[in-house]
Write a structure and sequence with these properties.
single chain, mainly beta, 6-stranded mixed beta sheet, 2 helices, 6 strands, 9% helix, 21% strand, globular, binds zinc ion
């Protein structure tokens, strides 16, 4: 699958948001988020470490409601020889690697976009059309 590029897929990772947030409980984490784009075909993880607070940020499973410029990209490394062993094994099993996109690769404050607009998952159905 090196000739045909996969269509660009956007995803979001939200710090402890969405899946594990229970109504009425204070938010345990910072809600910062990134928007990722898949630049290669491969496997992406369910969670990544939050670049703001160090807790875990969870995938929105490619279900995001708004288009916003991606901040990070999943890529396939050209060379695996120099990678740490665990990372190399991850890549050899089809896993992609995450890197910031130059100039805008930072974790975004939740105020950058209302989370209600960002998060569309099984727990929060899209509003029905009028
Ligand atoms: Zn965080």
């Amino acid at each position: 699958m090196t000739e045909n590029r996969a269509p660009a897929r956007l995803n979001a990772y939200v710090c402890d948001g969405g899946h594990f947030r229970l109504p009425g409980l204070p938010r345990p984490a910072c809600d910062h988020f990134i928007i990722t784009i898949d630049c290669a075909e491969g496997v992406t993880p369910f969670m990544v470490k939050c670049g703001n607070c160090g807790r875990m940020a969870f995938s929105k499973m490619y279900r995001i409601a708004v288009a916003i410029a991606p901040t990070h990209e999943w890529y396939w490394p050209d060379e695996t020889a120099d990678l740490p062993e665990g990372t190399r094994e991850h890549v050899e099993r089809g896993g992609l690697l995450l890197r910031p996109i130059e100039g805008r690769g930072r974790w975004l404050h939740p105020d950058a976009l209302r989370l209600d607009q960002l998060i569309v998952d099984a727990c929060r159905p899209l509003p029905a059309a009028a």
